[in-house]
Amino acid sequence: MSVSSAANPPSSVPASFEIKSAQLPLVALLLKTPDWDLLASDLLKQFGPQGESPDFFDNDPLVLDFSSLPPDSPVQDLKPLLQTLRACRLLAVAARGAGAVWMQAALALGLVEAPLDLPRVRPARAEPVRQAAAVEPVREAARKVPGPATLVIDKPLRSGQKVYARGGDLVVLAMVNQGAEVVADGNIHVYAPLRGKAMAGASGNTQARIFSLCLEPELISIAGVYRTSENPLAPDIHGKPAQVRLSNDGQDKLLFEALNT
């Protein structure tokens, strides 16, 4: 969110602090049901401590988006929802698209009202067991991110190990075993078998891709759109050199394409 201050005469600016505008990447939770029990079950199954991707978020700030709730949805206590989000390592800081009563409840809990017209990319969840909500990355303004040098890992990753290339690409030169996780805000390149979890575009980059010389993942995800091993890959992709990317038609669909080697 952007924060700006009124112009102050130079003589009145304190020496102890300075207020500047800030542009922060946020994610938004697009609420599709007021059934907090259903929503908690779906969120915890995917992102909770015992879920499929317990470390997908790292106390990321989040916007509650009420714009898809039915207009006649009864207003409920938001505290249980905020507790569920904290268990998923998500911190609700704002709300948008809510009716007056819903917004009043959100403001009473310390959330701020955010505008609905924030530029955003498509919803980030796909193929859930029950489609109750979508977590979607939101970017408030185009900005250049001076990412660090590409992170290179040259040793095998064992079960329980996780590597996160924050702000850049990740290159792995050895096997990613089952139970291991590789995460990057940019692209992921695995020049070996990929048998664990791979999550590219973790901060919402829908242009990120995943490459592997032997694609056999437990879970594959780009900008939050994911597919698990419960949905087997095609024979010409599974165990073969392949890349994964998001479709360009706005359908939030993962495309698996063989690489010619």
UniProtKB/TrEMBL annotation:
Residues 152-249 form the Septum formation inhibitor MinC C-terminal domain. Transmembrane segments: none annotated. Keywords: Cell cycle, Cell division, Septation. Residues 17-90 form the Septum formation inhibitor MinC N-terminal domain. It holds the Pfam family MinC_N. One of its GO terms (biological process) is division septum assembly. Cell division inhibitor that blocks the formation of polar Z ring septums. Rapidly oscillates between the poles of the cell to destabilize FtsZ filaments that have formed before they mature into polar Z rings. Prevents FtsZ polymerization. Belongs to the MinC family. Interacts with MinD and FtsZ. This is Probable septum site-determining protein MinC. The gene is minC.
